[in-house]
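writing this on my phone so excuse typos. first protein, seq and then structure
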Amino acid sequence: MALALFRCLAPFRRPSSIPLLLNPNPFNPFSFPKTLFLHSKTLVSRLSTEDTHQIVTKDERLRTEDGTALGWGTIVAIVTSMGGGPAAVGIVRLSGPTAVDVAARVFHPARGRKEGGSPFLWKPRSHFVEYGFALDRKGNVIDEVLAVPMLAPRSYTREDVVELQCHGSDVCLNRVLKACLEAGAKLAEPGEFTLRAFLNGRLDLSQAENVGRLIAAKSVAAAESALANIQGGFSSLVKSLRKQCIQLLTEIEARLDFDDELPLLEPRVLTNQVDDMWNILQEAIDTANYDKLLQTGLQVAIIGRPNVGKSSLLNAWSKSERAIVTDIAGTTRDVIEANVSVHGVQRSESAAMTADVIIMVTNAIDGFTEDDRKLIDHIQKNQKSAGSATPVILVVNKIDCVPCTSMRQFEMATSSFMKLVPTCAINGKGISELERAVLEVRGLDSIPPGGFRWTVNQRQFEQLLRAQESLSRLKSSIDDELPMDFWTIDLREAALALGEISGEDISEEVLSNIFSKFCIGK
């Protein structure tokens, strides 16, 4: 598990360019007994010829005072999906201080292999693909592979990384993985590659979280949101707000120590700055509902009498033929894909109990019948007994078959429903209005067209709320003219909350919970 991983890693605290003003003696499960610093040296990596070099002026791997890299060990994992049928290519990834040495025991380049002779030791060139063979510890060829070395710090983890591109069958991949384990690597824990990227400063915690979300994205919008977060959209906002909190904290604490030597702080100017920060936090908080929509969608139950047009409505809404549509009442099958389900009267009760939104369908030809009334009464009775308040929308389908005056009877029944939407599943009329109604009843109507560029998850939402509440208390303290000592308490709390989002101030328990949800190999 991920928790075991943290205990076998050297205790560590991520470096930060921001001075520690929040707590002079914070508990830190990753504090290293020796002073850590970024060791700078020139790296030379040959690209294509003996005369062409790329100069990297800074090695950003974390090192101790004696210049040695932290001894986290070298990890290996299959990073492409397994068990989903044969694939053309699969990848085994190594990362760590001895990744090149381990890979050299397994990979032997074809260019140095002579007929009947022994292969020579592999000497990789960073970011240079090389063709060769993977050998087991007895020297038997187990696969033809391509080796892609990415030497630190220009890699995903900022460690030496080697990827072996193998044939994509589970057998080939597992044989190469076993050879790497026998050569000295250890099997990676879930999320360990991304964890190392975080610990080495390549990603902050909010960016690292979105790596997993990008992998698990089920829609283009969810993928774009996760990618925007990885690229630093949300991270830059959090870092900016945290920096402002620390700067204000510095100004206030300086005046507590040197009150006679510094000019007074203008409360109005300070209040305006706090208001600006509060509003920025609110804009970020507003993305939380959209994030839930991206990650899980809305579970919508479509209920109603037989042959009122539930299946036709579903097909028009989803723009695909996912339900059987006939003129015979009761022939609709249950839909097993997406988050919209179609149910008849018999299954309405269970569908309504688990849905985020209930859409009750009737049709303009029959009108609002006694069976419709019994169904909605039964649903509302069950909601009341279960303490549920799932919103219900009434959809009047087949409006193309009757004159407009026939809608009056449905309007009289709307007291039991939050919205009334007339539709025609044949020509798609009313479908966009139905989509808007679903968003409105779930409080998602404030989402701008096209959604948000990035969103915040539940953990980040809680910390943003914590920071916002701290700023609200700070403003009250300023307005009530309380001593400046009280101001520093709330500012420090806001900065700590923002630090938990970025990972500047984070506990081992939170890290374990985040990275244990990742797949092995990422």
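second protein below, same order as before
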Amino acid sequence: MASTSSGVPRKRTTKRKHVEPEPPPLPQPEPVPEPEHELDLEMQLFQQFRQFESDDDDYDELVGRLSPEESDDEYLEHADEPPAEDPEAEEVNPFRPKRALRAVNSVDTSLDPENYDPWTLPHPPEEYTVVVEKPKRNDPGKSIHWETAQPQARGRQNIANVLAGIPGVNRNARHADTPVKAWGCFFSDDMLAVVLTNTNKKINKYLSNLTPEVRNSDKNSYLREASATEIRALLGMLYYRGMLGQNLLDVKWLFGDRVGHPVFGATMSKNRYKFLLTKLSFDDKDTRPERWRNDRFTAFRELHDLLNRNCAEALIPSDFITIDETLYPMRSGISFRQYNRSKPAKYGLLFRSLNDARHPYTFFSLPYAGKPTGDHPTHHYVTGTEEVVKYLINQMEEHRQLRGCNLTIDRLCTSLPLTEWLFEKGITVTGTIQTNRKGLPQEMKTTDGREEHSYKVAWFRENKNASLHSYVVNTKSSGTKNVLLVTSMKPTSESQKTMGNRSRLHTNCTTTQRGGRTSLINGQ
């Protein structure tokens, strides 16, 4: 103890901490006794119903709709009838404008002539001339002539309007009467062999660096080569994980007894699942650096080519096909990851694909992997939107004939030379086109003096195969907009019928969505 100058000891003082008083306990609800018999449970339910009857103001009105003399059969008859519409009822969102219901909203309805109103061509016909290449000393130049007179059908039907083959499932895929066989049509045995060979090679390289004591330990029994059955089971678990929406769930919770699904623990152990995921490989990693110089997608190229082959051979295309691009969500640190702020995912892997417009099916796809660093890039490296269309068509025709099909593309791909190239192959095309493309007359591109929903059409005078359509519409973002469309199909001189208050003029196409992809379908 401390002492003062007089020698009297002094007590040491300590500061007390301020302690908040504990709040009073909350009132606990009275426990509801569990019913001992089934009769007690029925009494509780009856009391709850009586409480609902006394509290609900609309209960008497609801019961008063039926008279006491009505039987149960009459009540069921009234219950099947739709409720009467109240003309004075307000809309859910009165500030949202009503959209006109279009009679043409699918492929089949676009081909029905009953869904169109007659439209008269201008008289007398007009002619437009576009100079594509100016004449030089030894070159007369090149010009394109358009006319508004509709060509007359003469002679035999063009080969581009005759479909080759019967659309549907291919002969080799008709044996798939179970889900496993149907999956095997796309993920074939040779694809499974590629995954199994490269995965085991990676596993053996890892095991060679371990000591025999570690490899032969009972705790490390999961350190072994994979089998074909295990690879199939692993892929099935990944399917199941995505179906349950547990892609972001940690593996320890995925195999947990309370959170995870029992199918994961019943298939394989947690350590084996993690080990196979880390060692899963789709190519030879030793030769990858050399192949990557000419193909930046080489880590998955072999498996992707086999998948394209199986998808192209499993189904025969229908009469309407389309080419579009898809941004698959992904945030991995790869150099060819794309960014598009108009897409929901923003970041992802860009695929250009050839699809069926009547069914949600993809025949062939081309991933964008960037420019190779080597001097000899493979044929998978394609530059330009028109070259992408030609690549997909040529690759698809190695497995299936596309003669007689109508191809739908967007404005980034459509051009007059591409339309002629496709028509020579027996493929018609329909797609919007940009106004800065060569060969388009100024009279069709301008919007001066044209009213909203006004429509013009002109035919290619040289071969009468292509036609150019112009449709003017007012938009809130860009004002008056001129929508140009090029097609090599026989167009209709009619406008689409509408079932709403606002009349809208549509040319020879309608917009449909099949499998998440938008297609412009030509109506005949």
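The first strand starts at residue 116 and ends at 118. thats all i got for now
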